[in-house]
Design a protein that fits this description.
The protein is α/β, with parallel strands linked by helices. The chain has eleven helices and twelve strands. The strands form four sheets. The chain has a six-stranded mixed beta sheet with strand order 7-6-5-8-9-12, sandwiched between helices. The protein has a two-stranded antiparallel sheet with strand order 1-2. Strands 3-4 form a two-stranded antiparallel sheet.
Length: about 300
């Protein structure tokens, strides 16, 4: 097998994650425009921002822009009142990227750990180009790396380096001490109120605590779940012999075996129902991303107009 082809499907390098900046540009994210001053119509502010957001209404003062007069309040109170605006600051973007043992797998396309790293990298480039602060929590079962949000290219490169270095190069059947729940609990400590948070995982190892942890994180932040799935995890082929990794080596199964098909489907249905309930209870919106689809294609359908992450 060609080495470069193997790396493209089982692992992704730092250089490849850096090159995904071109994919981010292709999503046509508009650059952040300079925000205006607190009173609309005055000089430009040196602060970066997304635009103007309504703040409050107060009595009209000489020098206020007449275009900002709130005529409804003026009529109700029989005195001129004007609307005040404030700049919308850049929003911290926090990326939780799962590179645990279950992510070292794919039946088609690229390994789930590769897709997770690629999704996180593109989102990081998009956020940086929008003038947002970018940070991340990368966890692989034995290690949890935390990078607080910052608006610097150097910070994004450091995050990408972590994503590349913490991917697995071989199966690891040892017990995982650092789980998705661990990362969610850490995110509550790291995230500033109002952060944009993406949780990128296969969500195979959710627990009874996961809904409350996700819900607590979503209470004061905008949280989206990107669930990386492989077609084999959702439906078996109707025939053929396959091998899957086990704690004591590969386990072979016959997909044409009716009893095995039924047991497999029941297990899938149970997990899907449990996961749907988890997202329902937490109030977090989840989107499936397939291992067989290029991450930029998946994100184009997920993100807002122009690839906006906010």
């Amino acid at each position: 097998m060609d080495v470069s082809a193997s790396e493209a499907t089982t692992r992704v390098s730092l250089q490849a994650l850096i090159r995904l900046q071109a994919d981010a540009r292709a999503l046509k994210l508009p650059s952040a425009r300079p925000a205006r001053a607190r009173q609309a119509g005055l000089q430009h502010s040196s602060q970066r921002g997304r635009g103007m957001a309504f703040a409050e209404v107060r009595l009209y003062q000489p020098g206020d822009d007449i275009r900002s007069i709130d005529w409804r309040v003026t009529a109700r109170r029989q005195a001129p009142h004007t609307k005040l605006y404030e700049e919308e600051r850049e929003r911290p973007v926090l990326l939780l990227c799962d590179l645990g043992p279950t992510l070292f797998f794919a039946s088609t396309g690229a390994f789930k750990q590769v897709r997770c790293a690629q999704l996180a990298a593109i989102l990081a480039w998009l956020a940086l180009s929008a003038g947002d602060q970018v940070g991340g929590i990368v966890f692989d079962g034995s290690t949890l790396s935390v990078q607080r949000p910052a608006r610097r290219k150097k910070s994004v490169l450091r995050l990408l380096d972590t994503l590349a270095s913490q991917q697995r190069s071989s199966p690891d059947n040892s017990a995982s001490e650092i789980t998705l729940d661990t990362a969610l609990a850490e995110a509550r400590r790291v995230a500033h109120t109002g952060s944009r948070i993406f949780v990128i995982s296969d969500f195979l190892n959710i627990s009874e605590s996961t809904p409350s942890l996700l819900g607590a994180l979503a209470r004061h932040n905008s949280v989206s779940a990107l669930r990386v799935v492989d077609p084999l995890e959702q439906q078996l082929p109707h025939s053929g012999r396959f091998a899957i990794a086990g704690s004591e080596g590969p386990v072979w199964f016959d997909a044409s075996n009716t009893s095995f098909q039924k047991a497999w489907q029941e297990k899938i249905d149970q997990h899907e129902a449990r996961l749907a309930e988890c997202f329902r209870l937490s109030g977090v919106e989840a989107t499936n991303v397939s291992t067989q689809e290029a991450p930029a294609v998946s994100l184009k359908a997920i993100l807002g107009p122009g690839g906006r992450v906010g």
